[in-house]
Design a protein that fits this description.
single chain; mainly alpha
Length: 106
């Protein structure tokens, strides 16, 4: 793959990530329209911090990626590509959350 081919591929992937993020956010954010609500719930329930909620979900994805690289998936509804895109979206969601809390600079 050339650099130009990679950048074209990258653009397609990030557009797909945005589509997935919109759809999942509609499912998880509820009527509050809070893009981070699903992650904040662990803190609201006294289980862990919101940041730990993000990291837990990211760890789940990393474990799935590891398993999918070692053997064929028994559950066919999420491919390794889907899992990698979810992990990238979780990373951006956490960055957005931290920025909204002024913990990182844009």
């Amino acid at each position: 793959m050339t650099t130009a081919e990679f950048l074209d591929w990258f653009e397609v992937q990030t557009k797909e990530m945005a589509r997935i993020c919109r759809a999942k956010n509609a499912d998880y954010s509820g009527a509050d329209h809070d893009p981070f609500l699903n992650f904040k719930r662990v803190e609201l329930m006294g289980i862990a911090t919101t940041e730990q909620g993000f990291l837990t979900r990211m760890t789940d994805k990393l474990c799935r990626i590891r398993n999918l690289t070692e053997k064929e998936a028994q559950v066919k509804d999420e491919s390794i590509r889907d899992t990698l895109l979810d992990l990238a979206n979780y990373s951006l969601l956490m960055a957005g959350y931290l920025e909204s809390k002024s913990r990182i600079k844009p």
